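Morning - manganese (II) ion inputs below, output right after.
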Amino acid sequence: MSAALALDETHDPALASWVVSANAAHTDFPIQNLPFGRFRRGGTAEAWRIGVAIGEQILDLAGAAAASGWPGESATWLAPLAAGDLNAFMAMGPAARRGLRLALSRALREGSPQQAALQACLVAQARSEMAVPCRIGDYTDFYTGIHHATTVGRLFRPDNPLLPNYPWVPIGYHGRSSSIVVSGTPVRRPQGQLKGPDDAAPQLAPTQRLDHELELGAFIGSGNRQGEPIGIDEAEEHLFGLVLLNDWSARDVQAWEYQPLGPFLAKNFASTVSPWIVTMEALAPFRAPFERPAGDPQPLPYLDSAANRASGQLDLVVEAWLQTAAMRAQGQPAVRLSRANVREAAYWTLAQLVTHHTVNGCNLQCGDLLGSGTLSGPAPDQAGSLLELSMGGRQPLTLPNGETRSFLQDGDTLTLRAWAERAGARRIGLGECAGTVLPAGPLRPPPAP
Ligand code: MN
């Protein structure tokens, strides 16, 4: 069993923190989570700092590192974090991550002798702004959502929905990291080449089919040397943790450009990540077996192992929520568009993605980001994109206030959430991944909240 799956005292559901908001039943950030992010006090030009989310607060690791009482090797692990360099800590690998997790868990527990010193290192999340959590290296987006692949394949190729390679090879493409932004950043409607089926020629125009894709993003911690593939049972040791990822997509641009080399400008104008990286250790209580439907081929041997079969999957609920500008103006809350479970949505595990990505000798590096692909459950209302929910735009959704949506309109705010909950474990969440659509053209301020 991978050490990332081992449960220890940091997972004890009975643990409580002296940070009172971390003990609220539905917080995403109880003491059992301890995700890493990059923040500064809102409205300042301070240098970005690395912090750990705890309840409604952030433990500022620059200040915390200077406090006394840290055991053993903690000073070594805290040094890059205190300097604002999350990548350097990520590259230290899983032993450092587990060691610091234990030290942080003990320091933030009720009764910790470090409470007095660390109390002064708390910053309220509500008074902070977040950056992308680390320097993001190369970005690869996979296509592990088999229900998404089947539904979208049917829309694009009615007679040939799921291509024959799908059950054998984890499909992916290389995206761009330059346009990845953190939750809360407005997303401008892109323009691109559009060509309707009856048009003689394409035209350049703002996309009329702007969509979201509900995905998970996995950050690589320690990489591999070029030419040295990562075996399936070592794969998880190279994963640092997960964020939510909205792979915004211009469906009309995509339909015209995607053959023969796959997505290009339909995808790389913006992708949004949630600000807190939830470590693989925090997710350890929420693992599930990897199973193939009866009749599907089993993975090739390099993508198969007893450990991957026993616990390669994640029991994690993912949701997409929409609030239109009119809903916001009328004081109406966001409406949920979809809810699915990763274990039902993903055809390949994270370990299989890492192993497949490196099987040719490709070197992954610290800070690389692997997207899961759109996570849609088996039922129609579990779909992680509007393309699926509206059946290619043919069946618009009706919202509670009477508005309809086939695709996103200017002023819409799309928010992704994820959380895990199980008997015998403390509920944890990934936080929020939100973005509001701005009109095409020169950047304008977002609509008033
Ligand atoms: Mn995608």
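Note: The chain is about 20% helix and 25% strand.

O.
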